[in-house]
Amino acid sequence: MQVNGRVVENPDHWVSFEHDRILFDGRPLKAKARRYILLYKPAGYITTYKDPDGRPTVYDLIQEIDTFVSPVGRLDLETSGLLLLTNDTNFAERLTNPDHKVQKTYLVKCADLLTDEALEQLRKGVELSDGMTRAAEVRRVRDSGKYSHIEIRITEGRNRQVRRMVEAVGSKVLKLVRTAIGPVEIGELKIGTWRDLAAEEVAVLSGARGRANASPTKSGSRGRARVRPSR
Ligand code: URA
Questions:
Q1: What gap in Å lies between CA 125 and CA 99, rounded to an integer?
Q2: 3-state secondary structure of 88
Q3: 3-state secondary structure (DSSP) of residue 29
Q4: Residue 188 has pLDDT above 80, yes or no
Q5: E strands of the chain, at which residues?
Q6: How far apart are CA 117 and CA 136, in angstroms?
Q7: 7: helix, strand or coil
Q8: Which residue of 70, 120, 123, 183 could cross-link 226, Cys pair, CB 3.0 to 4.6 Å?
Q9: Does 79 sit in the ligand 1 pocket, CB within 6 Å?
Q10: 137, 152, 155, 161: which is closest to 98 by C-alpha?
Q11: C-alpha of residue 79 to centroid of ligand 1, in Å
Q12: φ, ψ for residue 116, nearest 5 deg
């Protein structure tokens, strides 16, 4: 490889696609265009590239995409909803690092009717095996029959966190859907399909414009995304 006219043999040599002229085998090397995908992951799909057990993966749903993108964080097998995939590692880091406190919104169907006290406990934080959870925003969406449907917004992304939080207040999650990350909502996207994020959505989630940790519209997941892709 040649960097700015000098041969470099050290594989750890740092280069900048913006500032350096890089040749590989005599041909200019260019940075891959950045890609930001919003997928409506169905339950039953795993977020890794290959599954030794042969289960479907999210890559089965984005086969048309010719750039290798990785999931930004994870959604467990049985959780559906908004999954971002990108080849921009800084963007992914910003959204997954809990220090940035980007809110993730989930709709939860619980196996029981939750009391107001249980919701208050979820708001204040509950003790999990890996420590107390941060304060969360929690609202009752509706109670139907034996089940409470709640919306919960957390700023961490620990493994199976929402499921474990609901278990910590004595119930179980029957259905879990992630409806938003920051102000970007899943909106009207059909389950199992994807779209590119709009430039303004990327800017907001990157912290370059507005607040990545702002909530979506108060009307909940059925509301239209506050950050809409411009057409
Ligand atoms: N919380 C969970 O319990 N599961 C997820 O997939 C994401 C958050």
A1: 17
A2: coil
A3: coil
A4: yes
A5: 2-3, 6-7, 22-24, 27-28, 36-41, 70-71, 80-86, 104-110, 127-128, 131-132, 137-144, 147-154, 173-181, 184-185, 194-196
A6: 14
A7: strand
A8: 183
A9: yes
A10: 155
A11: 6
A12: -60, -35
Structure tokens at 67: 């750039």
Only one residue has tokens 């041969």, namely 7
**What are the structural domains of the chain?**
33-98+186-206 (3.30.70.580), 103-181 (3.30.70.1560)
Both tokens of residue 55? 């289960």
State residue 17's pLDDT score. 77
Token pair, residue 11, equals: 């594989």
Q: Alpha-carbon distance 120 to 109, whole Å?
A: 17
Q: Which of 12, 53, 60, 76 is catalytic?
A: 76
- What pTM value is reported for the model? 0.84
The per-residue pLDDT for range 43-77, each reduced to its tens digit, is 999 999 889 999 999 999 999 999 999 999 989 99
Q: What is the mean pLDDT of residues 102-125?
A: 98
Residue type, 206: S
74 CA → ligand 1 middle, Å: 8
